[in-house]
Design goal:
Layout: H1 3-28, H2 31-48, H3 56-76, H4 97-112, H5 115-126, H6 131-138, H7 142-160, H8 166-169
Helix pairs in contact: 1-2, 1-3, 2-3, 3-6, 4-7, 5-6, 5-7, 6-7
Length: 176
Amino acid sequence: MAARDRAAFAEFVTARSGALHRAAYLMVGEVGLAQDLVQEALTKTYVAWPRLRDEGNAEAYTRRVITNTAITWFRRKSWSSERASEHLPERALAGHADHVSDRTALMSALAQLPPRQRAAIVLRFYDDLTEAQTAAAMDCAVGTVKSQVAAGLATLRTLLGDAVDLDDLMPAGGAA
């Protein structure tokens, strides 16, 4: 790869790593696993970099790799259900207990969704992608995105019940 391409790739990684890691974390639910997922996706993006004619395609390509890899990992169940942690949880601040409880309930409910439904919801509501962009990232039709999101939201509403308002918890315009 030419030095110019390496520099452009480094700029892409610097600019988009945070957003890519957030999406990966929401898909897999663990910081370390999300880091592994992003690392693998960026490695594949680096290899494909010369073929990505427009750098704007790089983020879409990387999101697609993250999504497909996360779904594959879930299918293979290639990781343990145990979650190791370096740090003890912090104490909740007064006034935030309900919000933290709701967020925890949402993360737990997201973890119970099938991988494609979880990916569709993360891409649509957390990454604020359009249905078409989500379909491209998931390598499927827009109709599939719509059905996966609808099914995922229905399951979340069932799992969370009336105790948690999805519209308050979901960023980027709510749960629709």
